[in-house]
Write a structure and sequence with these properties.
single chain, mainly beta, six-stranded mixed β-sheet, 2 helices
């Protein structure tokens, strides 16, 4: 496995905040402050020597600011501006057998409960009503589809997620 696939992006460093090395932080986690639950942060390219630990953080207006160990001046803060914040995937909490991270679903085959192969999950996104899987159809799809949007509704549409086989079984009309 490559280093990139062993990590995931959880936020981004913003502009310097003040003169003592503080930076603005954009969080991509579900809870705004969730970005601070993981340590160390890997900033920029995934490589050795770019690990940072948050020394202090706080909310500021509707955003977040943080002081990282080793970032002591405004110039230091400027040098990490606009870098993505990644973490090692092993830092994520273990899930129950019935739960799955979206990152695990991407690349899985999607097959109907009647055996028709709909294609491969390209991405997932939230719509407000429910989460949706964007499935890239097979090249010679019998229904002429290039992509399908399949709701990620467990038990209603999603019948089984098999991590070992990398397959999601759905109750879905391939013509839709």
């Amino acid at each position: 496995m490559s280093l990139a696939s062993d990590t995931l992006v959880i936020g981004k460093i913003g502009a310097p905040y003040g003169v003592k090395g503080w930076v603005k932080v954009t969080s991509y986690t579900h809870d705004l402050e969730g970005v601070f639950a993981y340590t160390p942060w890997l900033l920029g390219q995934v490589q050795e020597g770019n690990e940072y630990v948050v020394d202090q953080w706080r909310t500021h207006n509707k955003g977040l600011v943080a002081k990282l160990i080793g970032v002591e001046t405004r110039d230091d803060a400027e040098s990490i501006k606009n870098l993505e914040i990644s973490i090692k995937a092993e830092l994520l909490p273990e899930l129950d057998d019935s739960d799955v991270y979206w990152r695990e679903l991407v690349g899985m085959q999607v097959v109907t409960d009647k055996g028709y192969n709909l294609g491969v999950i390209k991405e997932l996104f939230e719509t407000g009503a429910n989460d949706v899987m964007l499935v890239k159809a097979n090249l010679n799809d019998a229904f002429g589809q290039k992509e399908r949007m399949v709701p990620y509704l467990f038990e209603q549409v999603i019948k089984q997620v098999d991590r070992e086989a990398r397959m999601v079984t759905v109750d879905w009309d391939p013509a839709f």
